[in-house]
Design a protein that fits this description.
It contains two helices and nine strands; from the N terminus they run H-E-E-E-E-E-E-E-H-E-E. By secondary structure, the protein is an alpha+beta fold.
């Protein structure tokens, strides 16, 4: 018996150059897409970090404003017994007493109060570009009240803390006891006139609204500068001494 064996020829072939190039092309596309997504994610993260920073800056500034305005009108003449304490200059001009709200406007607000908690009365102003040197910035000034000097005749403001790139207008809105808003057409007003005294005497609530536009950082979706908004509202015990004929809001 003869045995026959059939051997099947097997051939092993490697990848062709075209196949290798195709694989490399596909890998390059995948890697490029991954890196592109990572780059976009990093840019979005950077944008959100800037937005969060702007928001934090606005919140800190508004918190400072709320702390200050809570001290408006403290201490004032209503806290003393006039039969026991004798005041030198007219009470409104006495450095031991805070007038409270002094002036209100769409983008500015002035008042007196012991904002540092020591009992010393300060004159405080919040104003858009108060120094006339910074463009769209909301600034804060604080100086000690001068004894014997009229409220509108204090020293030159000392502008310090500020928040930049503010595009809101109006920044401040004022509401009376009945909840109605004081219209912008009635502003600005201060205690130098009888009409201003009457208007300021009825302020119960102040709303502050800040929108910051950071032109250095663009939103990835819109291609426009990022904007951050922050608003708050505070009801105050308006103890202004703008006029002695009105009970103001110390009631």
């Amino acid at each position: 018996m003869r045995l026959r064996r059939n051997y099947r020829a097997t051939s092993q072939q490697g990848f062709t150059l075209l196949e290798l190039l195709l694989v490399m092309l596909i890998l390059s596309l995948i890697v490029g897409a991954v890196f592109s997504q990572m780059s976009d994610a990093q840019q979005r993260l950077g944008t959100e970090e800037n937005r969060l920073g702007d928001f934090q800056e606005a919140r800190d500034f508004v918190d400072q404003f709320f702390r200050d305005i809570n001290q408006a009108g403290t201490p004032n003449i209503r806290m003393f017994d006039p039969t026991v304490i004798t005041f030198g200059p007219p009470p409104v001009n006495d450095s031991r007493l805070a007038v409270g709200l002094v002036s209100i406007a769409d983008n500015a607000l002035g008042f007196e109060g012991s904002v540092n908690g020591t009992g010393t009365v300060q004159s405080v102003i919040y104003q858009l570009n108060g120094s006339l040197t910074c463009g769209a910035c909301l600034q804060r000034s604080q100086i000690d009240k001068i004894n014997g000097s009229s409220v509108n005749g204090q020293n030159t403001p000392n502008w310090g803390t500020e928040i930049n790139d503010v595009i809101t207008s109006p920044i401040f809105k004022y509401y009376q006891y009945d909840g109605t808003q004081i219209p912008s057409s009635s502003l600005p007003a201060d205690i130098s006139t009888s009409a201003g005294q009457q208007l300021i005497a009825n302020v119960k609530t102040i709303q502050i609204n800040l929108t910051i536009r950071n032109s250095k950082v663009l939103d990835q979706k819109t291609g426009l500068p990022i904007e951050t908004s922050f608003e708050g509202e505070i009801s105050l015990n308006n103890c202004s001494m703008a006029t002695t004929s009105l009970p103001m809001s110390c009631q």
